[in-house]
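Q: Okay, next protein. This is Helicase from Corallococcus llansteffanensis. I've checked the sequence twice, so it should be correct. Can you predict the 3D structure?
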Amino acid sequence: MSENAQLLEAVRKEARPGIWSNGVSLARAGAVALQSRSASEIELRVKAAGRPVALTVVLYPGDEAWECDCPSRVDPCEHVVAAAISLEQAEKQDAPLEAVAERWSRVVYRFTRVEGGLQLHRVLAHADGTEEPLDDSLTGRIAKPVGGVTLQVEQVDLVMERLLERRTRGPLLAEKLDALLRALEPARNVLLDGRPVAVSSEVLAPRAKVEDRGQQWVLTITADPRITEVVSPGVALTAESLVRLGETSMTGAWLQHLPLVRTYSPEQLGELSAKVLPELARRMPVDVRSRRLPPLDRDLKPRVLLELNQLTQGLSVLPTLVYGAPPTVRIDNGRMVYLRGAVPLRDEAAEQRLIHQLREELNLVPGRRLTVDGPEMMRFADKLRKFRGDLGGDAAGIVSPDMRLRPSLRVEGGASGTGVPEVRFTLEFDVEGGKGGARTVDAAAVVRAWTEGLGLVPLDGGGWAPLPRAWLDKNGQRVADLLAARQSDGRVANHALPELTALCESLDQPPPPGLDRLAPMVEGFDKLPPPVLPAELNATLRAYQQQGVSWLSFLKGAGLGGILADDMGLGKTLQTICILGPRSLVVCPTSVLPNWVAELQRFRPSLKVCVYHGPGRKLDPSADVTLTTYALLRLDAPTLGAPTWEAVVLDEAQAIKNPESQVSRAAFGLKANLRLALSGTPLENRLDELWSLMHFTNPGLLGGRRQFEEKTAQPIADGKPGAAEGLRRRIRPFILRRLKRDVAPELPPRTDSVMHVQLDERERSVYDAVMAATRAEVVALLNEGGSVLKALEALLRLRQAACHSALVPGQHAKTSSKVQTLVEALETAVAEGHKALVFSQWTSLLDLIEPGLKGAGIGFERLDGTTTNRGDVTSRFQGPDGAPVLLMSLKAGGTGLNLTAADHVFLMDPWWNPAVEAQAADRAHRIGQERPVMVYRLVSQGTVEEKILGLQEKKRALFEAALSEASGAAAITREDLLQLFA
């Protein structure tokens, strides 16, 4: 058996059946061509569907080994299988495997000499030996092949496509030519005046040599001996390669003047050492053969030396830019002045960065003295403390005075009418060490300096002291929250009492008296007393629901607010109805308003309900419960904000996740003794969504928004140890969350799976064209700090192309592979007696699904933002004679609906926020469901949708970081988007 046959047998044994089948298909389709071969290895190229760049497979027959540059984690992949089969078949048939150039058309880059430099033409070299100019878009040729031509496209060709976006005539400019040659280094098909040449990655430069000649020094500059011709400014030709020159101004005429020889006298030592040699060393190798010259030290870096002098009323600062420690040279007005020792290789870019840093951080300019006094002196001293420079002079110790701050806490408590103690506290910091008598600093000043990122705090008697940073990093946010929660009379808001107790513990002080009433907030909800349920309640509560009512009743009695964040489908509405009484306001999405009316009538018919909705709406003062929507809360904020409600409930409270929105501000303005937020997803993307809900339920608990972002959200996003636990500790008493798997084990199982969809040839062509048209633009935009929103717009076009070509502007298609897959799955499900929910973010995609359902004879209902009779639609679907399929937009049907008649859920277009999809799936998987629920995500293979699935896992960490034991979280970032376009 030959080596090739043995290699094929090894591949066959390792390959999975499906992979082997795909590889056989590729081999039969003639997708493999020979690139090169040597005694030990054979390099082949494989054209794979959906990939504009042919994949490279390297086979090692003697070692029975292989490599492929595709991203597949399966080994061997289908491309290795195809390559091994093609190689063995060629050997068996005694016919050499066709070379790449004999099978596929490829891009050739022809450089020609013209007056003034080089000109570049791209041509397509066809397998039959003919050529044609490539003056149009290569991307367009990939998307729409002309005349049955099969292109072999390399990654370098796509890079060159972007670089040659703007066509030029005549000789190429030096900078443009330099960029093109960098890109062409891996290219195989480069010609100069019709002769093949390589493009070298090496950069050639002249060479300098310094030698002693008596008491003088002789400097000689010679050309690199490998250069045979300079063909363009900055580009030379060696024996077989085009090579870039270190100085783009080098032309043939310049090199003809070499060698250059210059003599320096002893009086010119400073010029030679500090100016000429460092300048030459930046451009070319310098060989110093003189022992009388100071050595050249390439490791010396520029730094800032700050000379500080204490004045009677202030501080004097003189910055200097130097190299070495101690300084060997200094920079004066851009000139290098030699002082002693070695000479550095000057780094002007690093010097400019230091000059910019001086100006930005200290408002200083090298060589210019600055004097500061008064309050500005403290801020400047703190800046000096953080500045990475060397300090000298008689005031060098001014940024680390010998003082310490020690916290001192005093707490007073007393009884109140509610049984919750009224507590007041005073926190100061005693100054220890330094000059003068006993002094204190108010906690507000310390926290303010810490919040502003300062390291020093001013003292009442003058001067400043360093902050106790280690203590503040652990307790500073707690102190800031307590100060924010302290009312004008000094009393602490009830929601801040657990934090005050924790502060006492950190200082080894006894907690304030009378906190037994609030023990469940500190020690856990299992200490809550049993609930007192309304006598007329028409419901039997489960154990976890009784605990939820106990918790809500406790909050109500203590004058606190909270977030009921139970998993979707566990009965948050029922638990809330149990504690509602006169003067209660419930705000909910329009889609679930009928559900609230029905639930109140079902469970507590004795409550008088006012539905504040529709034309002619008005409040009913005699109503027990008033129901309204978020839209009306925004529009009628003055009317709804006028009364003092006994309780205000926000259902699907993620509606106020943006604290800057009008509806959020209207919610913050509502007056109530009890504020409740109901949401199975209290945060979906950013932690300030949780801040918004907590600001509604317990204003001040998480501090101000900016403070929360800097001290809590950003440290969690950065993965700072303890940051997520600190947030969980603060919100734990005010948020109750139970999961279905923990409290409702009798629920039938829910199974999530991915239905992989293979795009057909036309769909793949459209998708690849959209990707090619947007990827370079988006990556450049994000790398340059451009708008994430614009990148999301481009991502939207890609996602739509992955679902249905007709969603792409200018494209027309009656159906798509994804819609066909959906219809086939629905036909099977309906035939087996199942009902299904179909969700999409785009109503335009629902429009395209409808003809497929009609053609298959599948009845359906539809619910989106234009549906006016939502209750009728859901009632018909829930009924035994209702249509088997309900088409829904995620925005209109993703929350608040009970659709347990369905046990199949299809998600047509995955998105990075998994909370949205979870809400949609839980329309079916909730209490009342008796059958196992199947959730299918339709994902187009080889598209951005596959990467979105991975991003969803990252987003789930956001929720877990705040509400469970995970340690990191972040919103969608530039890095996320760059990964999606990779």
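A: Here is a summary of the prediction. The mean pLDDT is 82. The two ends are 43 Å apart (CA to CA).
Q: Noted. On to the next one.
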